[in-house]
Amino acid sequence: MSHYLPLFPLNLVAFPEEKLNLHIFEPRYKQLVSDCWKGARRFGIPSYVTSKIEFGTEMEITEIFKTYQDGRMDIKTRGHTIFQVKEFSNPWPGKKYAAGQVTELESVWDYTSSKLALLELLDELYGQLDIDKEVEYHMDTPVFKLAHKVGLSKEQEYRLLQITRESKRVDFLVVHLKKLLPKLNRAAEIRNRIKMNGHFRQMDSLDF
């Protein structure tokens, strides 16, 4: 299903259901927020990660948190659906900001037995880093809710955004973590070796 949206390209990836706070200071985006607030309160964030305007997330303005005397604004937004940009016009006729025709990407929420493996890898990741997990996760937790918490690059997040099946998104994170965790183990080993340098160490004798 295609429709037109005001567009706010950013060098980031926003996911469905993500809460994103934005500071608005450019005149064109002040106008965009003002127009959206008066209307459907929806705009799109195409992820300008690969220097192209192709895929992004439709956002809803949930609150204009603060308005400054010079017109700058702090706004709260929430992600909805993922879209592909079919037509892009910058600026949109009669406006300062860009807009375009977008088509929603339908997501398939299928089951995969790999989800348990993903949760175990997440436990290992946070254990290795010795940090508290910021997101409570379980078998029903959507991958998009975890996407910013697993060390993906922006380019990897952008690839994840385009995957339309939940089972494939799970597989994507499993592959990523299986590559990442050995590197963390190696880094921890090197860190421990550096710490031991210059210290007296008790070594077990070897039997020959």
Describe, in plain words, how this protein is organized in 3D.
The protein has 208 residues and is α+β, with helices and mostly antiparallel strands. The chain has helices at 27-38, 114-129, 143-146, 154-161, 166-196; strands at residues 2-7, 19-24, 42-46, 55-67, 73-89, 98-104. It folds into two domains: 2-104, Roll (Archaeosine Trna-guanine Transglycosylase, Chain: A, domain 4); 114-196, no CATH class. The chain has five helices and six strands. Strands 1, 2, 3, 4, 5 and 6 form a six-stranded antiparallel beta sheet that branches.
Key attributes of the depicted protein:
alpha+beta; Archaeosine Trna-guanine Transglycosylase, Chain: A, domain 4; six-stranded antiparallel sheet; 5 helices; globular
User: How far is the first residue's CA from the last residue's CA?
Assistant: 74 Å
Number of helices: 5
Q: What is the oligomer described by this structure? A: single chain
Number of strands: 6
Strand share of the residues?
25-35%
Please name the CATH architecture of the largest domain.
Roll
Q: What is the CATH homologous superfamily assignment of the largest domain?
A: LON domain-like
| Mean pLDDT over the full residue set | 89
Count of domains: 2
Note the main sheet.
6 strands, antiparallel
Give me the strand/helix succession.
EEHEEEEHHHH
* Helical/strand content category: alpha+beta
Which geometry do the CA atoms define?
Answer: globular
Fraction of residues in helix: 25-40%
